[in-house]
């Protein structure tokens, strides 16, 4: 494994924080400190902003093909270093190596996808209806961007934002989560090697997010914020963007319903539940949160799911044969413990799991609860852990009403062998994405995002680059 990068990346150079501050990066499997990285402050943010602003004009003029080729080279470099990047990711956030390798491939694909979109930015030309003017419509980069990424998919969430920004011709400042800065710094090194000009990407790792981000958003030179994280933080950032009318895209929280009808193929439904619930130890905004299972099949579904969940091996992500790594930190595990305890107090039955193991690390066992009260706290919040809470329902109208009874609307899952019912329920769900008889919806070629308080805008797909582009209309008189 090559040297771990621990400094800020500003203007194409690696540098310590201006005040010399550092912050620890912990291994959630052991609680031990892996290393210390630079802890940026306001002065570092200003330097990164200046670098991005100074690079913007030249980068916007760079040929689309040149931007495309940089992304394609970076895609290839990421894949060449799959094992190295997977080990780095597992060390800082805990997911098993097999999942980490999958994320590396997923992350690389965003660069390939947007390398292809970079050369397809188009406009239009035509005569306006009154015949007096021709309309010339062009698209231009929105300008310097602030990209804020979460800890749960530290590499893929970076490439999902950086890819379209590069393709569109935007410069950027990336602020990764303080728990997982190493993957982002490694990505910056790869992009530099791939030929990205100095100042186009700047990475500021920090534990002082408010001191770093707020001045950037209120200052007026940053023209775009792309944020993935909690709805609460998203609201705060939206308020900070208001002064300078900063363009925003937000991928916020979720409370995904997983609906199993009485005609569902239970083998398919249980397989999908394992993906939708246990991907990344349940620490995903797309994770199935509320399992609504028809009363006629609820007992059998719960039995099968508990059997599968109970067979999973829990341990450090670097150990062979491990299926479930640790949660990100003790705060995250404590939240899961409290939610399960509350559900049990309200009458839920524990089919498997439910008890925190002794020893080091932030582990929590895969857990299945049945007879869950709708009043339980875990019904109204993201669990962000390996806990499946099963409720029963009797008819389609009832389950749609209950599934939509939430301020969030990111994703939903529907299982039925009836095509008409599947499409009808999918259309009735107030969500941005639906998995119909599948537990995995994320794909770089598909638009990712939600409705209601789950966010604004879309990432990925053909529309993903639109978030980083503005239209300009030029009227040309007809002579």
- Cα distance spanning the termini: 66 Å
Low-confidence stretches: none
The portion of residues forming beta strands comes to 15-25%
The strands making up the biggest β-sheet line up spatially as 14-15-16-13-12-18-19
Shape verdict: globular
Number of helices: 13
CATH top level of the largest domain?
Alpha Beta
Topology, number of strands: 22
Query: Would you tell me the overall average pLDDT?
Result: 97
**Global structural class:** alpha/beta
Q: What is the rounded Rg?
A: 23 Å
Fourth-tier CATH superfamily name of the largest domain:
Aldehyde Dehydrogenase, Chain A, domain 1
Reported by name, the CATH topology of the largest domain is Aldehyde Dehydrogenase, Chain A, domain 1
Q: What percent of the residues sit in helical stretches (DSSP H or I)?
A: 25-40%
For the sheet with most strands, the description reads: 7 strands, mixed
Number of structurally distinct domains: 2
CATH architecture label name of the largest domain: 3-Layer(aba) Sandwich
Please sum up the structure shown.
This protein has 13 helices and 22 strands.
What key attributes describe this structure?
479 residues, alpha/beta, Aldehyde Dehydrogenase, Chain A, domain 1, Aldehyde Dehydrogenase, Chain A, domain 2, seven-stranded mixed sheet, six-stranded mixed sheet, 13 helices, 22 strands
């Amino acid at each position: 494994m090559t040297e771990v990068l621990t400094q800020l990346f500003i203007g194409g150079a690696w540098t310590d924080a201006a005040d010399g501050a550092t912050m620890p990066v912990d291994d959630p499997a052991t609680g031990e400190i892996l290393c210390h990285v630079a802890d940026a402050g306001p002065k570092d943010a200003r330097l990164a902003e200046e670098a991005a602003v100074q690079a913007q004009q030249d980068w916007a003029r760079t040929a689309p093909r040149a931007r495309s080729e940089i992304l394609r080279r970076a895609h290839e470099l990421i894949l060449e270093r799959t094992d190295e990047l997977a080990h780095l990711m597992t060390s800082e956030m805990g997911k098993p190596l097999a999942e980490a390798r999958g994320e590396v491939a997923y992350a690389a694909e965003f660069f390939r996808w947007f390398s292809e979109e970079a050369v397809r930015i188009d406009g239009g030309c035509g005569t306006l209806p009154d015949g007096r003017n021709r309309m010339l419509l062009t698209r231009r980069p929105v300008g310097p961007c602030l990209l804020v990424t979460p800890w749960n998919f530290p590499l893929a969430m970076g490439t999902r934002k950086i890819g379209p920004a590069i393709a569109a011709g935007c410069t950027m400042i990336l602020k990764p989560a303080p728990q997982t800065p190493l993957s982002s710094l490694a990505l910056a090194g790869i992009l530099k090697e791939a030929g990205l000009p100095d100042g186009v990407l700047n990475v500021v790792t920090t534990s002082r997010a408010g001191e770093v981000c707020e001045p950037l958003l209120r200052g007026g030179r940053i023209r775009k914020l792309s944020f993935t994280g909690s709805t609460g933080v998203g609201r705060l950032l939206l308020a900070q963007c208001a002064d300078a009318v900063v363009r925003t895209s937000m991928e916020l929280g979720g409370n995904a319903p997983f609906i199993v009808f009485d005609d569902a193929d239970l083998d398919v439904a249980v397989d999908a539940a394992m993906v939708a619930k246990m991907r990344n130890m349940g620490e995903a905004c797309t994770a199935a949160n509320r399992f609504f299972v028809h009363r006629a099949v609820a007992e059998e579904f719960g039995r099968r799911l508990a059997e599968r969940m109970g067979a999973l091996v829990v341990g450090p992500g670097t150990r062979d044969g491990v299926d479930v790594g640790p949660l990100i930190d003790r705060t995250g595990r404590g939240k899961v413990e409290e939610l399960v305890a509350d559900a049990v107090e309200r009458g839920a039955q524990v089919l498997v799991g439910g008890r925190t193991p002794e020893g080091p690390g932030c582990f929590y066992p895969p857990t299945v609860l049945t007879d869950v009260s709708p009043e339980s706290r875990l019904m109204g919040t993201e669990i962000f852990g390996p806990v499946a809470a099963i409720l029963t329902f009797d008819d389609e109208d009832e389950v749609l009403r209950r599934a939509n009874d939430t301020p969030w609307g990111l994703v939903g899952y529907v299982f039925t062998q009836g095509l008409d019912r599947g499409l009808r329920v999918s259309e009735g769900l107030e969500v941005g994405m639906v998995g119909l008889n599948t537990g995995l919806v994320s794909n770089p070629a598909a638009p990712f995002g939600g409705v209601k308080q789950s966010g604004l805008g879309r990432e990925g797909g053909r529309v993903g680059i639109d978030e980083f582009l503005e239209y300009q209309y030029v009227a040309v008189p007809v002579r």
